[in-house]
């Protein structure tokens, strides 16, 4: 077995497994070793501050400032600027003023309601429900309808299934009970539907049917399979003609 040579011997430097470097960076400055430990040779040395620094070159701030107001010199504190009348906007033209006017609408039903109380009672007895009335509230685009249902149970729900695109889509509107509408055999429910203008040239078409939910089952009414349909349109107001336009103008003078 080979023996390991003594550490640091110059003869066994090639065969030793552990070698110490020939010299240390702090060997040259052994005087820097003190009781506090090893001090690196490259430790920064504090620089001496120059007698004239950049801070000393700045002028000292003034101890006080004087503030003067315009009125102390007889000047006005308010500046008034006058604008020319050309900058004022003109009043709205006839087209804009017409948009602010209240528009009127009317309804064209494509079905017939029961004409008499006996006819209404007969339809309610056969279908368990029927549309009693439908009106367009004045000055609005809101439809208000009354539905008459057979009082066959206490708990009941009445819905109106409505379509605004010829039954490509639909939604259900819950009708509300009309207080005091019970006459012993039937009850009244009301619903409201508000249409949003502007309408097209042909107006807004509305198709709907009625559904009556009870503990005995569901009942429908749809105008004998044709649905309740109507069209809501806007009234076109006739513009008054000026008298000067009605009179014929002539370039001949009578003597």
Descriptive overview:
The protein is mostly beta strands and 255 residues long. The longest helix has 11 residues, at 117-127. Mean pLDDT is 74; it is low at 1-20, 29-38, 83-88 and 92-100. It is built from four helices and ten strands, in the order ααβαβββββββββα. The strands form two sheets. Strands 1, 4, 5, 8, 9 and 10 form a six-stranded antiparallel sheet that branches. A four-stranded antiparallel sheet has the order 2-3-7-6. Pfam families: CBM_21.
How would you state the average pLDDT, rounded?
A: 74
How large a portion of the residues is in β-strands, by DSSP E? 25-35%
Classify the helix fraction into a percent range: 10-25%
Strand/helix succession: HHEHEEEEEEEEEH
Structural class computed from helices and strand pairing: mainly beta
Categorize the overall geometry: elongated
Q: How far is the N terminus from the C terminus?
A: 156 Å
**What is Rg?**
50 Å
Number of strands: 10
Biggest sheet overview:
6 strands, antiparallel
List low-confidence stretches.
1-20, 29-38, 83-88, 92-100
The total of helices stands at 4
């Amino acid at each position: 077995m080979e023996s390991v040579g003594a550490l640091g011997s110059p003869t066994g430097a090639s065969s030793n497994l552990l070698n110490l470097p020939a010299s240390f960076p702090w060997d040259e400055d052994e005087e820097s070793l003190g009781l506090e430990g090893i001090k690196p040779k490259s430790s920064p040395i504090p620089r001496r501050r120059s007698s004239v620094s950049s801070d000393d070159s700045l002028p000292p701030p003034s101890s006080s400032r004087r503030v003067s107001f315009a009125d102390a010199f007889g000047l006005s504190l308010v500046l008034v600027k006058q604008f020319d009348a050309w900058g004022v906007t003109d009043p709205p033209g006839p087209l804009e003023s017409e948009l602010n006017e209240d528009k009127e609408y009317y309804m064209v039903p494509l079905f017939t309601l029961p004409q008499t109380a006996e006819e209404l009672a007969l339809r309610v007895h056969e279908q368990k429900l029927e549309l009693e009335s439908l009106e367009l509230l004045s000055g609005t685009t809101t439809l208000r309808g009354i539905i008459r249902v057979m009082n066959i149970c206490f708990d009941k729900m009445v819905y109106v299934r409505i379509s605004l695109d010829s039954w490509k889509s639909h939604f259900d509107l819950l009708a509300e009970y009309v207080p005091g509408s019970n006459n012993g055999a039937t009850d009244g429910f009301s619903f409201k539907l508000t249409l949003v203008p502007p309408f097209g040239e042909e107006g807004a078409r509305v198709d709907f049917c009625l559904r009556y939910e009870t503990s005995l089952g569901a009942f429908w009414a749809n105008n004998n399979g044709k649905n309740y349909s109507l069209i809501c349109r806007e009234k076109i107001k006739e513009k008054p003609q000026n008298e000067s336009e009605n009179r014929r103008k002539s370039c001949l003078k009578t003597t």
